[in-house]
Amino acid sequence: MDILTLISSAFIMIGSLSIIVGLIGVYRMPDFYTRLHAASIIDTLGTILILFGLIIYHGLTLISLKLLLILIFILITTPTAAHALAKSALHGNLKPTIGDDRS
Amino acid sequence: MSKYDIFFHKISLIISLAVLWVMLSGHYTSLQLFLGFLSVLIVAIISSRMNLIIFDQPILQLYFIKFIPYWFWLVVQVLKSNIDVCKRILNPKLPINPQLIMVKASQVSNLAKVIYANSITLTPGTISIDLDGSNIEVHSLSNKGANGLKAGDMDRKITSAEANPYV
Predict the structure, then answer these.
(1) Which of A21, A24, A37, A63 best tests the B interface by mutation, with the highest count of B CBs <10 A?
(2) Measured between beta carbons, which residues in chain A are less than 8 angstroms from residue B19?
(3) Where are the domains of chain B?
(4) Residues A34-65: pLDDT tens digits?
(5) CA B42, CA B45: separation in Å to the nearest integer?
(6) Which residues of A fall within a CB distance of 8 Å from B86?
(7) What pLDDT, in 10s, does the model give residues B125-158?
(8) Looking at this predicted complex, what is its ipTM?
């Protein structure tokens, strides 16, 4: 098996694992805002690792360039969506739980 | 705002659209390149007639080049805070301390402020909720993320990148 294929599949596996961790976080967190934090793991770590693995798999081709573009656009748009959700929740008088210190 | 500025905005829009078209199409026969360039011109004309090009803002494409060192730094920060939040999620005690804090944004232009707020949201553990003048209201998952923001590393880096006179 090709060494690059191995590296790329390792990246994709770790990315999938981080998506699972993010999903667990969405279940475990206490309120809406903290759940957004857990979901942002899926948006950043999951997409970065999976798309990076696919870029390595395809090597230096036009497909990799397109994948890089997809990555950039996702990294610009997902924080905007998360901010819109959080802002509309705050302005809709959904109070965040503050100072639930269990550390 | 001079006449030269408007010209430069339009030219940079046409160039970036043409580069995007060539990257996405993957066809290089002369007829298709001609048709692509025609569509780029039509889009540029329509968007300038619809006032979609904001002439009194700096050119976005140059901004992207200006911030290249910052993007690399940001990716490292995103990976670090990802690992931190992953550890908190997988910890059986769930050691979180959610809090709302105010962070000062010392940037001059609106675009740099948007970049700052978007970077805050992009790093897991902190979400920018409201931008009011030069204060950003941030929801933070833990003390660590809040203290990292209050230390102001990210703010300083964006401000110095914005003030870079060479691009």
Answers:
(1) A37
(2) none
(3) 3-56, 69-162
(4) 898 888 889 889 999 999 999 999 988 888 98
(5) 5
(6) 18, 21, 41, 45
(7) 899 988 888 888 899 888 888 888 888 888 888 8
(8) 0.84
